[in-house]
Specification:
heterotrimer; A mainly alpha (252); B mainly alpha (74); C mainly alpha (180); A: 6 helices; C: 180 residues; mainly alpha; 0% strand; proton-transporting ATP synthase activity, rotational mechanism (chain A); ATP synthesis (chain A); transmembrane helix (chain A); ATP_synth_F0_asu_AS (chain A); cell membrane (chain A)
Chain lengths: 252, 74, 180
Amino acid sequence: MASEAHGAEEGGLVFHPMDQFIIKPLFGGDTIAWYTVTNATLWMALSVVAVIVLMVLGTRSRAIVPSRSQSIGELAYGFIYKMVEDVAGKDAIKFFPYIMTLFMFIVMANFLGLLPMSFTTTSHFAVTVVLALLVFLTVTIVGFVKNGVGFLGLFWVSSAPLALRPILAIIELISYFVRPVSHSIRLAGNVMAGHAVIKVFAGFAAIAVVSPVSVVAITAMYGLEVLVAFIQAYVFTILTCVYLKDALHPSH
Amino acid sequence: MEGQLAHIGAGLAAIGSGAAAIGVGNVAGNYLAGALRNPSAAASQTATLFIGIAFAEALGIFSFLVALLLMFAV
Amino acid sequence: MATQTHEAAGHAAEVASAPGMPQLDFSNWGNQIFWLLITLTVIYFVLSRIALPRIAAVLAERQGTITNDIAAAEGLKAKAVEAEEAYNKALADARAEAQNIVAEAKAEIQAGLDAATAKADAEIAAKAAESEKAIAEIRAGALESVKEVATDTANEIVAALGGQADDATIAAAVDTRMKG
Protein backbone atom coordinates (compact mmCIF):
# COMPACT_ATOMS: atom_id res chain seq x y z
CA MET A 1 0.00 0.00 0.00
CA ALA A 2 2.78 2.35 0.83
CA SER A 3 3.90 2.35 -2.80
CA GLU A 4 0.91 4.53 -3.60
CA ALA A 5 2.40 7.24 -1.51
CA HIS A 6 4.61 7.93 -4.46
CA GLY A 7 2.21 6.98 -7.19
CA ALA A 8 3.35 9.26 -10.02
CA GLU A 9 4.16 6.27 -12.14
CA GLU A 10 0.87 4.60 -11.23
CA GLY A 11 -1.10 7.06 -13.37
CA GLY A 12 -2.87 8.55 -10.36
CA LEU A 13 -2.07 11.92 -8.88
CA VAL A 14 1.19 13.62 -9.83
CA PHE A 15 2.08 13.88 -6.17
CA HIS A 16 0.58 12.34 -3.13
CA PRO A 17 -1.77 14.54 -1.05
CA MET A 18 -0.12 13.43 2.17
CA ASP A 19 3.41 14.20 1.04
CA GLN A 20 3.14 17.75 2.32
CA PHE A 21 3.07 16.44 5.87
CA ILE A 22 6.36 14.59 5.68
CA ILE A 23 8.86 15.70 8.26
CA LYS A 24 12.34 16.18 6.83
CA PRO A 25 15.54 17.14 8.58
CA LEU A 26 16.38 20.67 7.57
CA PHE A 27 20.16 20.38 7.39
CA GLY A 28 20.67 17.05 5.62
CA GLY A 29 20.82 13.63 7.18
CA ASP A 30 18.16 10.94 7.17
CA THR A 31 17.59 10.17 10.79
CA ILE A 32 15.37 12.27 12.98
CA ALA A 33 16.60 12.29 16.53
CA TRP A 34 14.68 14.14 19.23
CA TYR A 35 16.87 17.24 18.81
CA THR A 36 17.08 17.30 14.99
CA VAL A 37 16.03 20.58 13.43
CA THR A 38 13.31 19.65 10.95
CA ASN A 39 10.86 21.58 8.81
CA ALA A 40 8.38 21.19 11.68
CA THR A 41 10.88 22.92 13.94
CA LEU A 42 11.30 25.72 11.41
CA TRP A 43 7.59 26.41 11.15
CA MET A 44 7.08 26.22 14.91
CA ALA A 45 9.88 28.77 15.25
CA LEU A 46 8.21 30.91 12.61
CA SER A 47 4.96 30.83 14.56
CA VAL A 48 6.90 32.01 17.62
CA VAL A 49 8.36 34.80 15.50
CA ALA A 50 4.88 35.70 14.24
CA VAL A 51 3.54 35.84 17.79
CA ILE A 52 6.46 38.02 18.89
CA VAL A 53 6.02 40.34 15.89
CA LEU A 54 2.33 40.75 16.53
CA MET A 55 2.19 40.87 20.30
CA VAL A 56 5.55 42.43 21.23
CA LEU A 57 6.86 44.45 18.28
CA GLY A 58 3.36 45.48 17.24
CA THR A 59 2.60 46.92 20.66
CA ARG A 60 6.00 48.49 21.38
CA SER A 61 4.73 52.05 20.89
CA ARG A 62 2.12 51.56 23.66
CA ALA A 63 0.03 54.16 21.91
CA ILE A 64 -3.23 55.38 23.38
CA VAL A 65 -4.51 55.57 19.82
CA PRO A 66 -3.30 52.19 18.49
CA SER A 67 -1.57 51.55 15.21
CA ARG A 68 -2.86 48.79 12.97
CA SER A 69 -0.72 45.98 14.34
CA GLN A 70 -1.28 47.13 17.90
CA SER A 71 -5.04 47.10 17.45
CA ILE A 72 -4.84 43.55 16.09
CA GLY A 73 -2.86 42.52 19.16
CA GLU A 74 -5.35 44.26 21.42
CA LEU A 75 -8.20 42.62 19.53
CA ALA A 76 -6.68 39.16 20.13
CA TYR A 77 -6.14 40.03 23.79
CA GLY A 78 -9.68 41.30 24.27
CA PHE A 79 -11.15 38.37 22.33
CA ILE A 80 -9.49 35.69 24.45
CA TYR A 81 -9.83 37.63 27.70
CA LYS A 82 -13.57 38.00 27.18
CA MET A 83 -13.87 34.35 26.18
CA VAL A 84 -12.09 33.17 29.33
CA GLU A 85 -14.15 35.51 31.48
CA ASP A 86 -17.51 34.62 29.89
CA VAL A 87 -17.07 30.88 29.44
CA ALA A 88 -14.76 29.82 32.28
CA GLY A 89 -15.65 32.47 34.82
CA LYS A 90 -13.85 35.29 36.61
CA ASP A 91 -11.62 33.00 38.68
CA ALA A 92 -10.20 31.46 35.50
CA ILE A 93 -8.45 34.72 34.63
CA LYS A 94 -5.21 33.42 36.13
CA PHE A 95 -5.16 30.82 33.34
CA PHE A 96 -5.48 33.56 30.75
CA PRO A 97 -1.78 33.61 29.69
CA TYR A 98 -1.88 29.83 29.28
CA ILE A 99 -5.01 29.89 27.14
CA MET A 100 -3.67 32.86 25.20
CA THR A 101 -0.50 30.85 24.50
CA LEU A 102 -2.53 27.95 23.13
CA PHE A 103 -4.68 30.23 20.99
CA MET A 104 -1.81 32.29 19.60
CA PHE A 105 0.26 29.22 18.76
CA ILE A 106 -2.62 27.38 17.05
CA VAL A 107 -3.89 30.36 15.11
CA MET A 108 -0.39 31.35 13.96
CA ALA A 109 0.56 27.78 13.02
CA ASN A 110 -2.72 27.39 11.13
CA PHE A 111 -2.30 30.61 9.19
CA LEU A 112 1.39 30.04 8.46
CA GLY A 113 0.48 26.55 7.28
CA LEU A 114 -1.78 28.09 4.66
CA LEU A 115 1.17 29.73 2.93
CA PRO A 116 2.11 27.85 -0.22
CA MET A 117 5.06 25.43 0.24
CA SER A 118 4.79 25.75 3.99
CA PHE A 119 4.51 23.03 6.59
CA THR A 120 1.51 22.89 8.92
CA THR A 121 2.64 21.89 12.39
CA THR A 122 -0.92 21.64 13.71
CA SER A 123 -1.74 18.94 11.15
CA HIS A 124 0.39 16.49 13.10
CA PHE A 125 -1.18 14.44 15.83
CA ALA A 126 2.05 14.65 17.78
CA VAL A 127 1.49 18.38 18.20
CA THR A 128 -2.24 18.41 18.82
CA VAL A 129 -2.12 15.44 21.16
CA VAL A 130 0.43 17.24 23.30
CA LEU A 131 -1.68 20.39 23.28
CA ALA A 132 -4.81 18.45 24.21
CA LEU A 133 -3.01 16.42 26.87
CA LEU A 134 -1.66 19.62 28.41
CA VAL A 135 -5.21 20.92 28.64
CA PHE A 136 -6.50 17.59 29.95
CA LEU A 137 -3.81 17.35 32.63
CA THR A 138 -4.27 21.00 33.61
CA VAL A 139 -8.01 20.58 33.93
CA THR A 140 -7.74 17.34 35.90
CA ILE A 141 -5.07 18.64 38.26
CA VAL A 142 -6.79 21.98 38.78
CA GLY A 143 -10.08 20.17 39.35
CA PHE A 144 -8.65 17.93 42.05
CA VAL A 145 -6.59 20.70 43.67
CA LYS A 146 -9.53 23.09 43.77
CA ASN A 147 -12.30 20.71 44.72
CA GLY A 148 -10.55 17.66 46.13
CA VAL A 149 -12.66 14.55 45.88
CA GLY A 150 -15.62 16.78 45.09
CA PHE A 151 -14.31 16.96 41.56
CA LEU A 152 -15.62 13.42 41.08
CA GLY A 153 -19.09 14.93 41.44
CA LEU A 154 -18.64 15.90 37.83
CA PHE A 155 -19.38 12.27 36.97
CA TRP A 156 -22.20 11.82 39.46
CA VAL A 157 -25.22 13.45 37.83
CA SER A 158 -27.25 14.33 40.90
CA SER A 159 -30.21 15.57 38.89
CA ALA A 160 -30.78 12.14 37.31
CA PRO A 161 -32.81 9.34 38.92
CA LEU A 162 -30.73 7.28 41.35
CA ALA A 163 -30.95 4.09 39.30
CA LEU A 164 -29.54 5.80 36.23
CA ARG A 165 -26.67 7.48 38.01
CA PRO A 166 -24.10 4.64 37.84
CA ILE A 167 -24.71 4.23 34.12
CA LEU A 168 -24.49 7.96 33.58
CA ALA A 169 -21.32 8.01 35.68
CA ILE A 170 -19.72 5.49 33.34
CA ILE A 171 -20.82 7.47 30.30
CA GLU A 172 -19.54 10.70 31.83
CA LEU A 173 -16.26 9.04 32.72
CA ILE A 174 -15.80 7.75 29.18
CA SER A 175 -16.70 11.11 27.69
CA TYR A 176 -14.25 12.76 30.07
CA PHE A 177 -11.41 10.58 28.85
CA VAL A 178 -12.44 10.90 25.21
CA ARG A 179 -12.10 14.67 25.55
CA PRO A 180 -8.35 14.87 24.80
CA VAL A 181 -8.81 12.47 21.90
CA SER A 182 -11.55 14.48 20.22
CA HIS A 183 -9.88 17.72 21.24
CA SER A 184 -6.66 16.81 19.44
CA ILE A 185 -8.07 14.89 16.48
CA ARG A 186 -10.57 17.66 15.72
CA LEU A 187 -7.80 20.21 15.22
CA ALA A 188 -5.34 17.99 13.37
CA GLY A 189 -8.08 16.31 11.35
CA ASN A 190 -9.63 19.56 10.19
CA VAL A 191 -6.32 21.08 9.20
CA MET A 192 -5.05 17.91 7.58
CA ALA A 193 -8.30 17.28 5.70
CA GLY A 194 -8.36 20.80 4.30
CA HIS A 195 -4.75 20.66 3.16
CA ALA A 196 -5.17 17.18 1.70
CA VAL A 197 -8.26 18.27 -0.25
CA ILE A 198 -6.39 21.26 -1.64
CA LYS A 199 -3.56 18.95 -2.69
CA VAL A 200 -6.00 16.53 -4.32
CA PHE A 201 -7.44 19.37 -6.40
CA ALA A 202 -3.91 20.56 -7.16
CA GLY A 203 -3.11 17.05 -8.41
CA PHE A 204 -6.06 17.21 -10.81
CA ALA A 205 -4.73 20.52 -12.14
CA ALA A 206 -2.12 18.51 -14.07
CA ILE A 207 -4.86 17.27 -16.36
CA ALA A 208 -5.41 20.09 -18.86
CA VAL A 209 -9.18 19.55 -19.28
CA VAL A 210 -10.12 19.84 -15.64
CA SER A 211 -7.44 22.30 -14.58
CA PRO A 212 -9.68 25.42 -14.66
CA VAL A 213 -12.22 23.65 -12.47
CA SER A 214 -9.48 22.53 -10.16
CA VAL A 215 -7.99 26.02 -9.87
CA VAL A 216 -11.42 27.41 -8.97
CA ALA A 217 -11.87 24.58 -6.49
CA ILE A 218 -8.48 25.26 -4.92
CA THR A 219 -9.38 28.94 -4.55
CA ALA A 220 -12.70 28.10 -2.94
CA MET A 221 -11.14 25.53 -0.62
CA TYR A 222 -8.41 27.98 0.29
CA GLY A 223 -11.02 30.52 1.35
CA LEU A 224 -12.75 27.87 3.41
CA GLU A 225 -9.44 26.83 4.94
CA VAL A 226 -8.67 30.40 6.03
CA LEU A 227 -12.00 30.32 7.86
CA VAL A 228 -11.31 26.85 9.27
CA ALA A 229 -7.83 27.89 10.41
CA PHE A 230 -9.35 30.55 12.63
CA ILE A 231 -12.45 28.63 13.69
CA GLN A 232 -10.46 25.57 14.77
CA ALA A 233 -8.16 27.73 16.88
CA TYR A 234 -11.26 29.40 18.34
CA VAL A 235 -12.94 26.06 18.97
CA PHE A 236 -9.85 24.60 20.61
CA THR A 237 -9.60 27.62 22.88
CA ILE A 238 -13.27 27.78 23.78
CA LEU A 239 -13.33 24.05 24.54
CA THR A 240 -10.33 24.57 26.79
CA CYS A 241 -12.36 27.26 28.58
CA VAL A 242 -15.36 24.93 28.84
CA TYR A 243 -13.22 22.16 30.34
CA LEU A 244 -11.62 24.64 32.69
CA LYS A 245 -15.06 25.75 33.85
CA ASP A 246 -15.81 22.11 34.67
CA ALA A 247 -12.66 21.97 36.75
CA LEU A 248 -13.40 25.18 38.63
CA HIS A 249 -17.15 24.67 39.08
CA PRO A 250 -17.82 20.92 38.78
CA SER A 251 -21.44 21.14 39.95
CA HIS A 252 -23.53 19.38 37.39
CA MET B 1 -7.52 -8.07 -2.39
CA GLU B 2 -7.13 -7.01 1.16
CA GLY B 3 -6.01 -3.56 0.03
CA GLN B 4 -9.06 -3.20 -2.15
CA LEU B 5 -11.31 -4.12 0.76
CA ALA B 6 -9.54 -1.45 2.79
CA HIS B 7 -10.34 1.08 0.09
CA ILE B 8 -13.99 0.06 0.14
CA GLY B 9 -13.92 0.44 3.89
CA ALA B 10 -12.40 3.88 3.52
CA GLY B 11 -15.20 4.86 1.17
CA LEU B 12 -17.79 3.58 3.62
CA ALA B 13 -16.13 5.49 6.43
CA ALA B 14 -16.35 8.63 4.32
CA ILE B 15 -20.15 8.37 4.60
CA GLY B 16 -19.59 9.46 8.18
CA SER B 17 -18.43 12.82 6.86
CA GLY B 18 -21.84 13.25 5.26
CA ALA B 19 -23.52 12.33 8.53
CA ALA B 20 -21.40 14.90 10.32
CA ALA B 21 -22.43 17.44 7.69
CA ILE B 22 -26.09 16.72 8.54
CA GLY B 23 -25.29 17.25 12.20
CA VAL B 24 -23.47 20.52 11.62
CA GLY B 25 -26.25 21.73 9.36
CA ASN B 26 -28.77 20.84 12.04
CA VAL B 27 -26.91 22.85 14.66
CA ALA B 28 -26.41 25.88 12.44
CA GLY B 29 -29.96 25.76 11.06
CA ASN B 30 -31.54 25.57 14.47
CA TYR B 31 -29.32 28.37 15.66
CA LEU B 32 -30.43 30.50 12.74
CA ALA B 33 -34.08 29.69 13.35
CA GLY B 34 -33.73 30.64 16.98
CA ALA B 35 -31.75 33.75 16.12
CA LEU B 36 -34.46 34.93 13.73
CA ARG B 37 -37.12 34.45 16.40
CA ASN B 38 -35.15 36.26 19.05
CA PRO B 39 -32.34 38.25 17.43
CA SER B 40 -31.41 39.99 20.68
CA ALA B 41 -30.37 36.71 22.29
CA ALA B 42 -28.43 35.49 19.24
CA ALA B 43 -25.14 37.25 19.91
CA SER B 44 -24.80 35.72 23.37
CA GLN B 45 -25.16 32.21 21.96
CA THR B 46 -22.51 32.24 19.23
CA ALA B 47 -20.03 30.55 21.56
CA THR B 48 -22.55 27.79 22.21
CA LEU B 49 -23.10 27.52 18.47
CA PHE B 50 -19.41 26.97 17.81
CA ILE B 51 -19.11 24.46 20.62
CA GLY B 52 -22.06 22.54 19.19
CA ILE B 53 -20.62 22.64 15.70
CA ALA B 54 -17.26 21.49 17.05
CA PHE B 55 -18.80 18.50 18.82
CA ALA B 56 -20.84 17.52 15.78
CA GLU B 57 -17.88 17.93 13.49
CA ALA B 58 -15.49 15.97 15.70
CA LEU B 59 -17.38 12.76 14.97
CA GLY B 60 -17.20 13.44 11.26
CA ILE B 61 -13.48 13.96 11.65
CA PHE B 62 -13.29 10.59 13.39
CA SER B 63 -14.80 8.89 10.35
CA PHE B 64 -12.39 10.81 8.14
CA LEU B 65 -9.59 9.55 10.31
CA VAL B 66 -10.84 5.99 9.98
CA ALA B 67 -10.87 6.44 6.22
CA LEU B 68 -7.32 7.73 6.26
CA LEU B 69 -6.17 4.87 8.47
CA LEU B 70 -7.74 2.36 6.12
CA MET B 71 -6.15 4.05 3.14
CA PHE B 72 -2.64 4.46 4.45
CA ALA B 73 -2.05 2.56 7.64
CA VAL B 74 -3.70 -0.81 7.14
CA MET C 1 -2.89 -4.15 -6.41
CA ALA C 2 -0.24 -4.94 -3.91
CA THR C 3 1.94 -7.21 -6.02
CA GLN C 4 5.33 -8.41 -5.00
CA THR C 5 7.18 -5.74 -6.94
CA HIS C 6 4.99 -3.01 -5.56
CA GLU C 7 5.50 -4.35 -2.13
CA ALA C 8 9.23 -4.20 -2.65
CA ALA C 9 9.07 -0.69 -4.07
CA GLY C 10 6.80 0.33 -1.24
CA HIS C 11 9.22 -0.92 1.33
CA ALA C 12 12.03 0.87 -0.41
CA ALA C 13 10.00 4.10 -0.36
CA GLU C 14 9.10 3.51 3.27
CA VAL C 15 12.70 3.25 4.17
CA ALA C 16 13.65 6.28 2.09
CA SER C 17 10.93 8.59 3.38
CA ALA C 18 7.91 8.51 5.63
CA PRO C 19 5.15 5.96 5.10
CA GLY C 20 1.72 6.77 3.65
CA MET C 21 0.52 8.89 6.50
CA PRO C 22 3.36 10.91 7.99
CA GLN C 23 1.24 11.72 11.04
CA LEU C 24 1.33 8.08 12.08
CA ASP C 25 5.07 7.74 11.78
CA PHE C 26 5.78 7.56 15.48
CA SER C 27 9.53 7.71 15.01
CA ASN C 28 9.47 11.51 14.76
CA TRP C 29 6.96 12.16 17.54
CA GLY C 30 9.68 12.67 20.10
CA ASN C 31 11.29 15.30 17.95
CA GLN C 32 8.03 17.17 17.37
CA ILE C 33 7.00 17.01 21.00
CA PHE C 34 10.39 18.29 22.11
CA TRP C 35 10.30 21.28 19.79
CA LEU C 36 6.61 21.91 20.50
CA LEU C 37 7.27 22.13 24.22
CA ILE C 38 10.10 24.59 23.58
CA THR C 39 7.82 26.62 21.29
CA LEU C 40 5.02 26.72 23.82
CA THR C 41 7.37 27.68 26.63
CA VAL C 42 8.85 30.51 24.59
CA ILE C 43 5.41 31.80 23.58
CA TYR C 44 4.17 31.48 27.15
CA PHE C 45 7.03 33.52 28.59
CA VAL C 46 6.94 36.11 25.83
CA LEU C 47 3.22 36.56 26.33
CA SER C 48 3.03 36.43 30.11
CA ARG C 49 6.21 38.47 30.77
CA ILE C 50 6.10 41.09 28.01
CA ALA C 51 3.10 41.18 25.72
CA LEU C 52 0.09 40.64 27.96
CA PRO C 53 1.12 43.04 30.78
CA ARG C 54 1.95 45.64 28.17
CA ILE C 55 -1.38 45.30 26.38
CA ALA C 56 -3.22 45.25 29.70
CA ALA C 57 -1.40 48.44 30.70
CA VAL C 58 -2.23 50.10 27.40
CA LEU C 59 -5.88 49.10 27.65
CA ALA C 60 -6.07 50.30 31.26
CA GLU C 61 -4.36 53.54 30.32
CA ARG C 62 -6.77 54.07 27.45
CA GLN C 63 -9.69 53.31 29.73
CA GLY C 64 -8.30 55.81 32.23
CA THR C 65 -7.82 58.44 29.57
CA ILE C 66 -11.33 57.95 28.29
CA THR C 67 -12.74 58.12 31.81
CA ASN C 68 -10.71 61.26 32.53
CA ASP C 69 -11.77 62.86 29.30
CA ILE C 70 -15.40 62.07 29.99
CA ALA C 71 -15.02 63.49 33.52
CA ALA C 72 -13.34 66.61 32.12
CA ALA C 73 -16.09 66.97 29.55
CA GLU C 74 -18.71 66.60 32.27
CA GLY C 75 -16.90 69.25 34.34
CA LEU C 76 -16.81 71.61 31.39
CA LYS C 77 -20.46 70.95 30.72
CA ALA C 78 -21.31 71.69 34.37
CA LYS C 79 -19.27 74.89 34.11
CA ALA C 80 -21.12 75.87 30.96
CA VAL C 81 -24.45 75.24 32.68
CA GLU C 82 -23.25 77.30 35.64
CA ALA C 83 -22.14 80.12 33.38
CA GLU C 84 -25.47 80.07 31.62
CA GLU C 85 -27.26 80.23 34.94
CA ALA C 86 -25.10 83.15 36.05
CA TYR C 87 -25.78 84.85 32.77
CA ASN C 88 -29.50 84.32 33.11
CA LYS C 89 -29.40 85.59 36.69
CA ALA C 90 -27.44 88.66 35.65
CA LEU C 91 -29.91 89.23 32.87
CA ALA C 92 -32.84 88.94 35.25
CA ASP C 93 -31.15 91.27 37.75
CA ALA C 94 -30.42 93.81 35.08
CA ARG C 95 -33.98 93.61 33.88
CA ALA C 96 -35.33 94.10 37.41
CA GLU C 97 -32.99 97.04 37.98
CA ALA C 98 -34.00 98.60 34.72
CA GLN C 99 -37.62 98.21 35.69
CA ASN C 100 -36.90 99.83 39.05
CA ILE C 101 -35.13 102.71 37.37
CA VAL C 102 -38.00 103.13 34.95
CA ALA C 103 -40.51 103.09 37.80
CA GLU C 104 -38.45 105.56 39.81
CA ALA C 105 -38.08 107.86 36.89
CA LYS C 106 -41.78 107.56 36.21
CA ALA C 107 -42.57 108.38 39.81
CA GLU C 108 -40.17 111.29 39.78
CA ILE C 109 -41.61 112.64 36.61
CA GLN C 110 -45.11 112.11 38.00
CA ALA C 111 -44.17 113.98 41.16
CA GLY C 112 -42.67 116.82 39.16
CA LEU C 113 -45.67 116.90 36.95
CA ASP C 114 -48.03 116.91 39.91
CA ALA C 115 -46.10 119.72 41.55
CA ALA C 116 -46.05 121.73 38.36
CA THR C 117 -49.75 121.11 37.83
CA ALA C 118 -50.53 122.15 41.38
CA LYS C 119 -48.43 125.28 41.03
CA ALA C 120 -50.02 126.12 37.74
CA ASP C 121 -53.45 125.50 39.23
CA ALA C 122 -52.65 127.75 42.16
CA GLU C 123 -51.35 130.45 39.85
CA ILE C 124 -54.36 130.15 37.66
CA ALA C 125 -56.63 130.31 40.66
CA ALA C 126 -54.79 133.37 41.97
CA LYS C 127 -54.93 135.06 38.62
CA ALA C 128 -58.61 134.22 38.27
CA ALA C 129 -59.33 135.62 41.73
CA GLU C 130 -57.40 138.78 40.90
CA SER C 131 -59.19 139.14 37.63
CA GLU C 132 -62.53 138.62 39.30
CA LYS C 133 -61.64 141.26 41.86
CA ALA C 134 -60.57 143.62 39.13
CA ILE C 135 -63.78 142.90 37.22
CA ALA C 136 -65.79 143.47 40.33
CA GLU C 137 -63.99 146.75 40.94
CA ILE C 138 -64.49 147.77 37.38
CA ARG C 139 -68.12 146.79 37.63
CA ALA C 140 -68.56 148.76 40.83
CA GLY C 141 -66.72 151.69 39.27
CA ALA C 142 -68.96 151.52 36.25
CA LEU C 143 -72.13 151.49 38.39
CA GLU C 144 -70.93 154.57 40.23
CA SER C 145 -70.24 156.31 36.99
CA VAL C 146 -73.58 155.33 35.58
CA LYS C 147 -75.27 156.66 38.71
CA GLU C 148 -73.37 159.90 38.47
CA VAL C 149 -74.01 160.25 34.80
CA ALA C 150 -77.66 159.42 35.28
CA THR C 151 -78.02 161.87 38.12
CA ASP C 152 -76.27 164.57 36.15
CA THR C 153 -78.32 163.80 33.11
CA ALA C 154 -81.49 163.80 35.12
CA ASN C 155 -80.59 167.18 36.69
CA GLU C 156 -79.84 168.61 33.26
CA ILE C 157 -83.07 167.24 31.82
CA VAL C 158 -85.08 168.57 34.71
CA ALA C 159 -83.41 171.95 34.39
CA ALA C 160 -83.99 172.08 30.69
CA LEU C 161 -87.63 171.34 31.17
CA GLY C 162 -87.69 174.30 33.45
CA GLY C 163 -88.23 172.54 36.61
CA GLN C 164 -86.49 172.83 39.80
CA ALA C 165 -84.95 169.54 40.71
CA ASP C 166 -84.46 168.35 44.14
CA ASP C 167 -81.18 166.41 44.38
CA ALA C 168 -82.41 163.89 46.80
CA THR C 169 -85.46 163.03 44.78
CA ILE C 170 -83.43 162.61 41.67
CA ALA C 171 -80.91 160.36 43.41
CA ALA C 172 -83.75 158.23 44.73
CA ALA C 173 -85.29 158.02 41.31
CA VAL C 174 -82.03 157.03 39.75
CA ASP C 175 -81.43 154.36 42.34
CA THR C 176 -84.90 152.97 41.82
CA ARG C 177 -84.37 152.88 38.07
CA MET C 178 -80.97 151.31 38.27
CA LYS C 179 -82.23 148.61 40.52
CA GLY C 180 -85.20 147.96 38.39
